[in-house]
Amino acid sequence: MTIEMLSARLNECGIPHDEVLPGKLLRYHELLLDWNTRMDLTAVTDEAEMMDKHYVDSLSALSVPGLIPPSGSLIDVGTGAGFPGLPLALACPDLQVTLMDAQQKRLTFLQAVIDELGVRNVKLVHARAEDGAQFPQHRERYDIAVARAVASLAVLSEYLLPYVKVGGKALCWKGPALMEELPQGRKAAFLLGGRVGEPVGVTFPGRDWQHLLLPIAKVAKTARQYPRKAGMPSKSPLGGNDKK
What we know:
Layout: H1 3-12, H2 21-36, H3 47-59, E1 72-77, H4 85-91, E2 95-101, H5 104-117, E3 122-126, H6 129-132, E4 142-148, H7 153-160, E5 164-174, H8 178-191, E6 194-196, E7 200-202, E8 211-218, H9 232-235
Parallel strand pairs: 1-2, 1-4, 2-3, 4-5
Antiparallel strand pairs: 5-8, 6-8, 7-8
Helix pairs in contact: 1-2, 2-5, 7-8
């Protein structure tokens, strides 16, 4: 993978970027490959697939006007190796980004990337999604909360919406399974003060992937009992016929 390849692919996918972003993404990629030899950060090993699935997919929301604010605050819940939050932070230097993960080793890797690239608009938080939203400094403090490939829509809603201030939104990176998850997801979002919007499809020329971005507007405060204790959202998702 080269700077020229990354730049060409971003252009091909309609993702706006400045001239320095591809170089930063390439260095991020080099560090990811290095650290992945010592710890499990990604199962994708083909370079062209990594370029699309990690960096281009993370930045795909920038190809849709209005989905990602150019400034303000964003939290990436369950960030893993930093996707989508860190590429978005690199592309949007005026956006204040928080990367949250339950595994300290992943945050150690991300700190190494941040230090190497001199990133100044990113903070790291070690917490589970359900626990972090109970901290006053994080609860309903963000303009946007994002997550990629983490859980079903009903579960994601409980993970994300408690972090979002009224008037903000959650944004979920989803695949084709989203359409089956929508009915329960809409109910769950309603219980959490959210309103599910229309999914937006993003394309990757040369790929047959169906990727969807789903915005959830935060229209009312989240009741204090949400999120429930760690493990409960995934064990008993909100919005089901017999779920409380």
